Amino acid sequence: MPGNGAVTRSTLRQQIADALRDEVLAGRLQPGREFTVKEIAELYGVSATPVREALVDLSAQGVLDADQHRGFRVPEYTAADHRNMIDARSLVTDGMFLALVERHEGFRNPEDARTAAALAVVRRRGEEARRAAEAGDLTVLIGYDLRFWRELSVVFGNPYLTDFLHRLRVQSWVCTVQHLRRRTDLRGRLWSGHTELVDALARRDAAAARSMIAAYNAHSLALIERPAGE
To answer: Fewer Cβ atoms within 10 Å of its own Cβ: the N or the C terminal residue of the chain?
Structure first.
């Protein structure tokens, strides 16, 4: 059994990683911003070890870039990077929807009471995401969107899928906020089709689900690539 010190360090590691990820997603840590383990340790008043571990975790998620000699930096993502992330996400979601059609054993039966209850929770999360999107509240939307996709992927019963898709979506949002934070008003401009997607999956309507995701991806690309003044 690990001692209390190990538990404390693990908790600190997660808290620091969560705090820094939130700073990046909120746009308060700008692209290209560099910092060292020592700087973050002094900022939070903790030892270097949990900070280094947290920064390595965030590098693995694509939230930060690691430089062996200069420390860590917030990556600068381009619209081309965003396109590649969307392509990667689509390969994952297409596989999820194919499992739906073929009644793959990994996807829990939507007629099962437990699965129905889980989808109801995901749908409520989607409703919160929709409200945030319509209000143009990017910070709140990101939080609910990440929870929405994590909880939705859990229904497919594969923890590796859940973790992989979550990392992709975090990295996608890190890229997206670098472009959208420059806009002064996002009301009505953000994708808000979360609940419709859940409803399609509950019906095992993979074609509708794929169509929604294709529209979402096209919408996202257009929003990123459109000049900020438009």
So the answer is: N
